[in-house]
Amino acid sequence: MHVVYPAVVSALLFSIGVYGVLARRNTILVLMSVELMLNAVNLNLVAFDVWLRDRLHGGQVLTLFVIVIAAAEVGLGLAIILALYRNRRTVDLDRLRALAEPAPGDGAASPAPGRETAARAEETP
């Protein structure tokens, strides 16, 4: 088998992943695009490991490490997205750029329980 075929498929997968990261606004789709890029790297590692006939199979071992890191990245990323959704009620990347809490008039999320009484106290004359 020629090494060109997996390399071309890997380049296509990586390109699709880069496009997904740059063009998408949904954080879950961005995470899926990052996973696509990691899978393209894994395909390259295994293809070149087979092509070079490495006795220690370094490319395949490194692929296993990448898979483990990718699984941890997915778990942590989804936990962060879930926490953001609970606070902001959106997973749109454009609306998540600011680190400040959304203003009460935005309608993105209700204020925290401790802040409701403070906001009502300020409104009363």
Any overview of this molecule?
This is NADH-quinone oxidoreductase subunit K. The chain crosses the membrane at residues 6-22, 29-52, 64-85. It is a multi-pass membrane protein. Belongs to the complex I subunit 4L family. The protein has 125 residues and is mostly helical. The chain has one domain: Helix Hairpins. Helices cover 70% and strands 0% of the residues. The chain starts with a helix and ends with a helix.
Can you tag this structure with a few keywords?
quinone binding; 125 residues; EC 7.1.1.-; 4 helices; Helix Hairpins; transmembrane helix; mainly alpha; transmembrane; NADH dehydrogenase (quinone) (non-electrogenic) activity
The CATH class assignment is Mainly Alpha
N-to-C SSE string, H for helix and E for strand: HHHH
Extended strand count? 0
Shape: elongated
- CATH fold-level topology: Helix Hairpins
Largest sheet: none
Whole-angstrom Rg: 22 Å
- The count of helical stretches stands at 4
Structural class: mainly alpha
Domain module count: 1
| Termini Cα gap | 80 Å
Mean pLDDT: 83
Residue share in β-strands: under 5%
Q: How helical, in percent, are the residues? A: over 70%
* CATH architecture classification name: Orthogonal Bundle
Q: Low-confidence stretches at least 5 residues in length (pLDDT < 50)?
A: none
Subcellular location: Cell membrane; Membrane
GO biological process, one term: ATP synthesis coupled electron transport
Protein name: NADH-quinone oxidoreductase subunit K
Keywords: Cell membrane, Membrane, NAD, Quinone, Translocase, Transmembrane, Transmembrane helix, Transport
